[in-house]
Amino acid sequence: MTTPPRPPPSARGLLSALLLGLLAVPLAELATFVAVALLVGFAPAALAMVAISAAGLLLLRRSGARPLGRIRLAEHGPAIAGFTLDDAAAARLLAAILLIIPGFITGLLGLLVLLPATRRRLADWLRRAVGAAGPGTPADPAIVDLPPEDWRSVPEPRLERRDEPPPR
Fold it and tell me: Which of 33, 40, 136, 158 could form a disulfide with 44 if both were Cys (CB 3.0 to 4.6 A apart)?
């Protein structure tokens, strides 16, 4: 017996889950820090948190500008750029951001995003959670996704201005 597919969550449901997460994560991070500080002491716990954030900064520096450029393109341009965990560069960027955020929970999540096996599982779980199409399934049937080897970029033709006389 198969279960029917879950409908995509509503915007209100996503917003309330996001708000709950934004409130719960700092509290969980604080509780985790207190627990680690009680186990190993305050100074080693604080030093470990600084080391995790420094590792995130180094990873962010090494991840390059490509994922950031794709996000910038999505923000400013008419095209929608994809940001998936299937792309290793995008995953490194997300891992770096998670490592930079002070805390042991986000640090652990950042390390899990770096590992390919857990990255794939996390990407599949996120797709199911938000009701997105899986790999190989276009979100819109009018869109044809081609692998990079099946297409090439062609420069747009240069158009002459109508208010200037044509060159002779």
Answer: 40
